[in-house]
Write a structure and sequence with these properties.
Keywords: Membrane, Nucleus, Signal, Transmembrane, Transmembrane helix. By secondary structure, the chain is of the alpha+beta class.
Length: about 400
């Protein structure tokens, strides 16, 4: 009597949880026998049971994308409790009951089994009479793990490019807006609420409720797409347009430090995805280290290759210069001529150029002024005379041909 009594609030919470939870069928005093699970075997039951899987297989390198699952299918809603040992099956925990009450009761549940866990146990309790359920354990290659690994690899090696891409900015912003619209609504409500308001307690619970609602939507996504596709399409269009408007309002990142932070965040996310998608922990850690070293050694490898080419060229000696072809010679002459003329115009327009001295020495000041203003440096008549003399069929070319014929004779 003299000891500390539990707080009334805790007793009230425990009593409320016990009243809300439906009592399992079969009686609390009846101790169910533990059924050992074997890979590939199906267990059909209509009474509450305890199941345990003992892992005796050592993970191998080819199990990097292998997933071991316990799948439970039932005709009606059931209660499933997962523990790590047989002793915990008989223990009562109010916290487990609270978590079960907050979660959705499903008749199709999958439990992932860690490849390194020695034993995984679960307790199946029936909530309604006449319920039948099936338990099966299987091990298979999971393509989702490979896709997650590939996505992490892409984020890690392309994080620098993605952080500067406008397409990635808008697509990521719209996707985040579609998934987190409920969270954004709760955040906007928190901004307009007065401080020290009891509504904040509801807002804190609203975040958890939003996450739970998103989880519920993803579980029933196929049924929603089939029955309520009009509302789903309207939501996607509305949330997508609003998200695009917000992204367009603030625009892509321009500050170099912000871009670096986004790039580092994408690379870190890529490493986490790579590590979490591989079931063999030593191999996962090795691949992460290899990826980091490969990305870090990119520039040293380029420098080493450039140094190797220099050493090779120094040892073999200078290579003879390549002669230009006639077409390359003509193009280079045109480019260099235009470049030199533009430099001359810029110099004539500069304050350092003495215009009066130049005008007093040239024969046609008007033509010089037109040239400085952007006109061609030769007249059409001069171009025609040059073409007749040096062009194809001109007198200069004919003289060269006649001289070569006389030398041959």
């Amino acid at each position: 009597a003299g000891g500390m009594k539990p707080a009334p609030g805790r007793r009230l919470l425990a009593a409320l949880v016990l009243l809300l939870l439906p009592p399992p069928l079969g009686g609390a005093d009846a101790k169910e026998s533990i059924v050992p699970l074997q890979e590939g075997r199906m267990y059909l039951n209509s009474v509450p049971r305890h199941f345990c899987y003992t892992n005796t297989r050592v993970p191998q390198w080819h199990d990097i994308w292998t997933r071991t699952q316990i799948r439970i299918n039932s005709s009606r809603m059931i209660r499933i409790t997962q523990v790590d040992s047989e002793e915990e099956l008989e223990e009562f925990s109010v916290w487990n009951d609270v978590l079960f009450f907050l979660k959705e009761k499903l008749n199709d549940t999958s439990i992932d089994v860690d490849l390194y866990s020695n034993k995984t146990c679960l307790k199946v309790e029936l909530l309604e009479a006449g319920t039948t359920y099936c338990v099966v354990l299987f091990r298979r290659f999971d393509p989702k793990l490979f896709l997650v690994f590939f996505l992490g690899l892409l984020l890690f090696f392309c994080g620098d490019m993605l952080s500067r891409s406008q397409l990635f900015y808008y697509s990521a912003g719209i996707s985040f807006g579609l998934l987190a619209s409920l969270l954004i609504l709760v955040y906007m409500m928190s901004k307009v609420m007065p401080k020290k308001s009891p509504v904040y307690f509801l807002l804190v619970g609203g975040w958890s409720f939003s996450l739970y609602l998103l989880q519920l939507i993803f579980k029933n996504l196929r049924e929603i797409c089939k029955s309520y596709w009009q509302y789903l399409l309207g939501y996607l269009l509305l949330a997508g347009l609003v998200s695009f408007g917000v992204c367009y309002r603030y625009g892509p990142l321009e500050n170099e430090r912000s871009i670096n932070l986004l790039s580092w965040a994408l690379q870190l996310l890529g490493l986490l995805l790579m590590y979490s998608s591989i079931q063999i922990h030593p191999i996962a850690l090795t691949l992460v280290l290899v990826a980091i070293c490969t990305k870090s050694l990119d520039y040293p490898l380029q420098w080493g290759f450039a140094l190797y080419r220099r050493v090779q060229s120094a040892r073999l000696g200078p290579s003879p210069p390549r002669l230009l072809t006639e077409e390359e010679y003509r193009l280079q002459g045109e480019v260099e001529t235009r470049k030199a003329l533009e430099e001359l115009r810029n110099y004539c327009r500069s304050p350092d150029f003495s215009a009066w001295t130049a005008v007093s020495r040239i024969q046609s000041p008007k033509r010089f002024a037109e040239f400085v203003g952007g006109a061609c440096h030769i007249t059409p008549c001069e171009a025609s005379v040059h073409e007749q003399e040096y062009g194809l069929g001109g007198s200069f070319l004919e003289e060269q041909l006649f001289e070569e014929e006389e030398e041959e004779e």
